Amino acid sequence: MFFIGLIGFLFFGAVGYFAYTFGQCLCVFSRLDKVINKKIVGVLSVFLYLYFVYMNQDALVAALIKPFDNI
How far apart are CA 41 and CA 36, in angstroms? Predict the structure, then answer.
């Protein structure tokens, strides 16, 4: 179970970092960075990611455990 938790935590962190950088990229691409600091948009995208993870945590845990059910 520790190994599954470690994989889940690493994946959670990697996708969170991707959400942060992708939010900044969208901010610069849409030229919104002229009005709002791109780091603020990055943090807002991480909060949006955390919201989606919280709302769908049952499905995410089921998807993480499913490959290990047959072992």
Answer: 8
**What's the distance, Cα to Cα, between the start and end of the chain in Å?**
13
Asked if 44 and 67 touch (Cβ cutoff 8 Å), the reply is: no
CB 41 within 8 A of CB 27: yes
Going by the DSSP 8-state scheme, the letter that residue 36 receives in this structure is: S
Alpha helices per DSSP H over 1-71? 2-29, 38-55, 57-65
The DSSP H or E segment spanning 67 is none
Walk along the chain (71 residues) and give the pLDDT tens digit of each residue. Answer: 688 788 888 988 999 999 999 999 999 999 988 998 999 999 999 999 999 989 998 998 888 788 878 76
Two structure tokens written together for 8: 């889940």
